[in-house]
Design goal:
With 39 residues, the protein is mostly helical. Helices cover 92% and strands 0% of the residues. The chain has 1 helix and no strands. The chain has one helix spanning 3-38. The longest helix has 36 residues, at 3-38. It starts with a helix and ends with a helix. The relative contact order is 0.09. Keywords: Membrane, Transmembrane, Transmembrane helix. The chain crosses the membrane at residues 6-25.
Length: 39
């Protein structure tokens, strides 16, 4: 396997995990906001 393929795969993997963390954080914030409004 070529080196650039591994580099690209590693870059995509780290980008995906970063984005999923950001999305989870945003969802958590929205959930907290909705719960605060519901009270």
């Amino acid at each position: 396997m070529e080196d650039w393929v591994l580099i690209l795969a590693a870059f995509l993997f780290s980008a995906m995990s970063t984005w999923s963390l950001i999305i989870l954080y945003r969802l958590w914030e929205i959930k907290a906001m909705l719960e605060a409004e519901g009270k």
